[in-house]
Amino acid sequence: MAQVPQRFFDALAVRTWCGLSLHALGRAREEIDAINVYPVADGDTGTNLYLTVESSVAAVEAVFAAHELDVGAPEATDGPSLTEAVGAMAHGALIGARGNSGTILAQLLRGMAQVLTARGESAHTEGPGLRLALRTAAESARQAVAHPVEGTVLTVASAAADAAEGAEGDCAEVARAAYEGACAALAATPAQLPVLERAGVVDAGGHGLVTVLGALVETFTGRAPGPGAATVIHARVEPHARVAPNAGVEPDASLAPGDEALAGECAATEGDRDGPAFEVIYLLEAEDAAVTRLRQRLDALGDSLVVVGGDGLWNVHVHVDDAGAAVEAGVEAGRPYRIRITHFGHGDAHTAGTGRPPRERSRRAVVAVVPGEGLAGLYAEAGATTLLARPGEPPASGELVQAVRRAHAREVVLLPNDAELRHTAAAAAEQARTEGVRVALIPTRSAVQGIAALAVHEPERRFDEDVVAMTSAAGATRYAEVTVAERQSWTTAGICQAGDVLGLIDGDVAVIGADVTEVAATVLDRMLSAGGELVTLVLGDEAPGTVTEHLEARVREAYLAVDTVVHRGGRQGALLLVGVE
Questions:
Q1: What is the pLDDT of residue 229?
Q2: pLDDT tens-digit map of 451-472
Q3: Which of 99, 193, 478, 504 is deepest in the core (most CB within 10 A)?
Q4: Which band of pLDDT confidence, cut at 50, 70 and 90, is reported for residue 262?
Q5: Cβ-count burial 103-119 (b if 16+ within 10 Å, e if not)
Q6: Do β-strands 385-388 and 362-370 pair in parallel, antiparallel, or remain unpaired?
Q7: What share of the chain is helix, strand, coil (3-state, %, to 5)?
Q8: Dist. CA 183–CA 181, nearest whole Å
């Protein structure tokens, strides 16, 4: 579907760009992870970029939400200023930056923010302002890296800025020129960096930046860039290119029989690397002078040093052999926090050295996102670890990772129960795998599909068999929901008005009406017309209590041999969830 184009770089454009970037990185995350060979072949660049932008999106959305609360009316036409929105974008990326590429991206966004908010907003919201912002971003990113290397994201950022400077016209023309320049530079990275050429891939961080710039084009043109430039990029990725463990497998049963040799080969490669053993990342509150000294000390300790930020808050990233010394250097400079130490090839090491033996993990667990308290109780009774997603507040990947940690199992089946959470859940699964957990993501799109999957879950089965059975059960369950339209909009069933009752089948609006019970009955009839043996109804708190009684009676009278099960969902957003197996 085409995106409504933004004409100027205002607060709404910032919000749109961040959202489109997150979705684009979600789609490209596995591919970017798979080609990640520099500076460390740890297969997480796409995931790190996704998590960085996810933090940025959360900060921008918080600004918009706070403004609605301030003015006292969600319908208010006045929104946050460009300064507020772009400042939130840069700050969110700074505090959420992950890995080498994520940290550099945070500095790129900070550089753009400095221009877009300088000397008033009006002079920097059109094409010339965007050109200057891209140039400042590229230069500030280079300054943040201790030893810039060509053939990386820095090269791609500089090429984007060069191409933008030659563009005349509005933001759409400048963004398109920057994207095309970045694509060309990315395709040339293997000729600049031997490690890329040997692997037959382009730079992973540069690929991520091209993805973000593609979202910028879509922001101002209303459409994503055509496949031409992407074809040039993908043509560089040869069939023998390195593939990150578990990349691109959903559901994931980790290693299949016969893959042990490949796993051993990858482990040997990781173990034989010549570079430092640890990645150290932390946020730091410190003065500029102290950070200058910190750069010098960390540069002597290791490599891949990137220090970004300013105004007293910094994000520090470095690869070292002595992780303790890197943290001590931060303590001397100021106040480090959110310290994360990862031992390459051996997962997260930030909890090591406690002196206590770790609690024994259970063999297997199911982690599920659920939309209401009632379903949370139902899932918990079935043995699942739940994460409550309140209406309008989808969980971030970090919350999903915490839920996986709470489950404390060696094997985890992850049920997102929402189509919009697929990429977020995939990023969380990838992060959990780096911590030694075997994770299978079953892309359930509704809580009723999750109920079906959980019904056939057998912890004593082999992991692969259990995942296949749960995936099959979820896939065989058609899902629907009945809800109320919040605003006028176009749908696949016609135009709806605010307050209309909508019946959605498999995610698409199929029925528009005025009465909840009538719409629900129509939805159920359409679903059962294709057959079915079991109907699951999950009633929300705001739905009329008689609707399930009416639907149960209808099934008994019109559909012989079809059983009905009713659950109370609580405050789940939708008035009614329907599943047909």
A1: 45
A2: 999 999 999 899 999 999 999 9
A3: 99
A4: very low
A5: bbbbbbbbbbbbbbbee
A6: parallel
A7: 50, 20, 30
A8: 5
C-beta of residue 136 within 8 angstroms of C-beta of residue 160: no
Q: d(Cα 280, Cα 297) in Å, to the nearest integer?
A: 14
Q: Report the mean per-residue pLDDT for the chain.
A: 83
Give the pLDDT confidence of 297-318 residue by residue, as tens digits: 999 998 889 999 988 999 999 9
pLDDT digit string, tens, across residues 417-427: 998 888 889 88
Is residue 466 a contact partner of residue 438, using CB atoms and an 8 Å limit?
no
- Short-list 417, 413, 481, CA closest to 449: 417
Give the model's pLDDT for residue 516: 93
Give how far Cα 467 sits from Cα of 254, 273, 372, 442, 573, Å: 11, 34, 25, 8, 29
Among 410, 401, 464, 454, residue whose Cα is nearest residue 429: 401
CA distances from 365 to 35, 91, 463, 470 (A): 31, 36, 11, 13
Q: Where are the alpha helices (DSSP H) in 278-364?
A: 288-301, 323-333
Measured CA to CA, the distance from residue 488 to residue 496 in angstroms comes to 5
Which residue matches tokens 């639907």?
551
d(C-alpha 536, C-alpha 389), whole Å = 20
Structure tokens at 216: 């910028």
Q: Is the pTM of this model over 0.70?
A: no
Query: Which strands, in side-by-side order, build the sheet including 385-388?
Result: 385-388, 362-370, 409-415, 438-441
171, 176, 178, 179 alpha-carbon torsion, rounded to 10°:
140
Predicted confidence (pLDDT) at residue 273 exceeds the cutoff of 50: no
226's CB contacts (< 8 A; 6+ apart) are: none
Residue 419 DSSP class: G
pLDDT tens digits, residue range 550-572? 999 999 988 888 999 999 888 88
Task: Provide the residue count of the chain.
Answer: 581
End-to-end CA gap in the chain: 30
